[in-house]
Amino acid sequence: MCHKIFQREAVxxxxxxxxFSSFLLCVTALADTYTVNDTADYNFPPPDDRVxxxxxxxxxxxxxxxxxxxxxxxxxxxxxxISTTTENNNKQGDLDILDDLTISGAGAEQTIVDGNGLDRxxxxxxxxxxxxGMTIRNGKAPTGDFGGGxxxxxxxxxxxxKVIVSNNRVAAxxxxxxxxxxxxxxxxxxxxxxxxxxxxxxxxxxxSNNGTSIAIFMSTVSGNTSTGLAGxxxxxxxLTIVNSTISSNxxxxxxxxxxxxxxxxxxxxxxxxxxSASGTDGYCNGTGGTLSVKNSIIAQNGNVNCCYSTGxxxxxxxxxxxxxxxxxxxxxxxxxxxxxxxxxxxxxxTFTHALQSSSPAIDAxxxxxxxxxxxxxxxxxxxxxxxxGAYEKCSSLLLFIPAITGxxxxxx
Length: 412
Ligand SMILES: [Ca+2]
Ligand SMILES: [Ca+2]
Ligand SMILES: [Ca+2]
Hints:
Blueprint lengths: L1 H20 L1 H7 L3 E3 L17 H10 L4 E5 L2 E4 L17 E3 L3 E5 L5 E4 L7 E3 L3 E10 L2 E2 L9 E3 L3 E10 L2 E2 L12 E3 L2 E5 L2 E3 L2 E2 L5 E3 L3 E5 L2 E3 L2 E2 L6 E10 L2 E3 L2 E2 L6 E10 L2 E3 L2 E2 L6 E3 L4 E5 L2 E3 L6 E2 L4 E3 L25 E5 L7 E4 L40 H15 L2
Parallel strand pairs: 1-2, 2-5, 3-6, 4-7, 5-8, 6-8, 7-10, 8-11, 9-12, 10-13, 11-14, 11-15, 13-17, 14-18, 15-19, 16-20, 17-21, 18-21, 19-22, 20-23, 21-24, 22-25, 23-26, 24-27, 24-28, 25-29, 27-30, 28-31
Antiparallel strand pairs: 32-33
Helix pairs in contact: 1-2
The structure holds calcium ion (CA) (3 copies).
């Protein structure tokens, strides 16, 4: 017992010394956690001990430093009266995050924040903001208000992990700043294990980068639309896409999938089934844009997979079903049908295009500087080598062997 008390005192003493020697870490330790317990939306302090999402954000905004909000399962519908679209103090319309913050949901299927067509859903001014495990849907940013139908960021860092951003839009107005139907990024945006689907804007139906960069890992951007530039993603000054799927986005007058005039990198990604009524269907380098692409499929996008005048660099192991992307590396496959199956749930948190067993993408990829899994989290490689694109096909025969062995043992 004495020994235990001594241990506790020693730990306390160590903690005090640690605090004095590292003031910054002690301040960090004082971060608050707010747990939301009411799905209603009040633009005034809620009654009794209720904590609605807007109130939790208010508390976190007013408490210096980074804080955390726990957002349990539920549908949180925004309803706080909106009399001006430019209110940025979290009292009306969109939820204004003014400080560093982590919002942690119970899972994208369980925790849903619904903009109710009132305004965009989240308007972010904090330097470092993270959101995980939630759906952000039905936001609507007004025209001429610098976009972001689901989320608008300022010049800070936003990370989305296991988030679905769906059915948000920027109101049709044709203003050049009506960008980012799902996410309008003006800083640094990192998207992991997430889905950006069925959003709409004049420019960048799914995502728009008007800031420093967007990086997309193990995520799917699908079914987004634009009337102007870029149905899926407007890459702006720079874009990195790894182990991801860009599928079934469309544009009326711009590129269906991705348009960018910055420095872009795409690795182990599948870009397919995007379309444009009058422009390039898949990927387009705008003026000054560059793309380094490796181990990726760009195929079956309308009539034209790629457009570029300069700046297209194949680092090999790419696959196209026609020959428009400048895939001139000896390891590239051109005029080759990737034999993709439809976009659907193939395991993991996001939808993917599986490969048919006759796909030339199977085992035709590279092992150099590759990642240990595919988009779903399936370990790579399966079979004789890495597959091209976001999906790694594992032989059904291999998967069935343990079951057959088990059955045969049980009968003896
Ligand atoms: Ca705070
Ligand atoms: Ca606002
Ligand atoms: Ca393989």
